[in-house]
Amino acid sequence: LKKDADRFSSAEIKLSVVNPNKVTPEGVSPNNYVTYAPYFHPKCDLPLAEAVTKCEWTRKDGDRNGELKKLSSDSSVLNKVCDQVRILSVANFWFDDTKYADRATALLKEFFLDNATAMAPNFDYSQIAPGPKASKGRSYGLIQSRCMAYMLTAATLLKQNGTNQEVYDGMKNWVKEFVQWMTTSEIGKGAISADNNHGTSATIQLASYYLFLEQPDQAKKAIESFMSGAFQKQIAKDGSQPKEINRADGIHYSLMNLSLLATLGYLGDLVGFDVWNQKTSAGATIADAVKYLSKYATGAESWPKSTDQPKGFTHMLQIAAEKYGDPDGTYLEAIQKIGQLPWADDNVANLYADFSYGFNGTKKC
């Protein structure tokens, strides 16, 4: 943690969505977050910057087009800001070194608040589908902002350690505007109502943003709405996730959504709503989804479309044992079969920065 924080605190690289090399739809402000849908491929030989608006494109699920990242680095930059603010915020808390807080504050100002470099509080142009009509984003793009929910959790530590109040207030105003956009725009509402991993991610974000704004009742309403709506279609009676398993990389998306549901479970704990034992319309819970994936993670069965095993599944087994108990040692046995300790595949940011909004500031593991 300290090694990474030292590296980030001494960095002088500017991190902003404002980039002269970014290719945006005509008339779009450089302050807008812009990305292109990753699974699209051109049906012509024009240079990429021209093909994005002049050619027909085709979607190939699971086949990422890395060339599209050359049009915009906004997703990469946002993730860097999120990771660095998280690590610096937690490092400042543990090591009482103001240089970490100073750099984290500077990153927040530069990326979210300073007029010349700030990202506008919307995702109107995220995951644009390339082609002659490439002018607006899609609801799928909102999943790219999920790192902000985790970043803001850690950023609350800056306030506890006396960070710049003006910056903290500025972030609250920015988040308030982003929530307004999420709950009123077609893109935002589309993401929130989605019955797959996109809906789960959007609900995590919405609940987290409400908690950051000190509105726990609104956070609870967001979770309740999701659990009584989109969640009802997410887990089948056998524990499979119908909206995820048919993807080209179904095992990855199944674990991804399961991990997101676990995060939502912890958020539910904070606001007094039991996500863990909620049942879908098929009568299944998160525990059933864990059981379903466990047989593939341990190698007991092979995934129909792939020999891949879900990476990082020990994390979910640990969570399941915590929330549902493990009286017969089923979860522990699965962890031992996989042969990887929980968290071993996660980076230091996850290990040290998963503080909840209920965190009371005590330096205690």
Automatic annotation (TrEMBL):
Record has Signal as a keyword:
yes
List the record's Gene Ontology CC terms alphabetically.
Answer: periplasmic space
Entry's SUPFAM superfamilies? Chondroitin AC/alginate lyase
- GO MF term set: lyase activity
Q: Which UniProt keywords apply?
A: Lyase, Signal
Keyword match NAD: no
Name of the protein? Alginate lyase domain-containing protein
Classification from the root reads: Eukaryota, Fungi, Fungi incertae sedis, Zoopagomycota, Kickxellomycotina
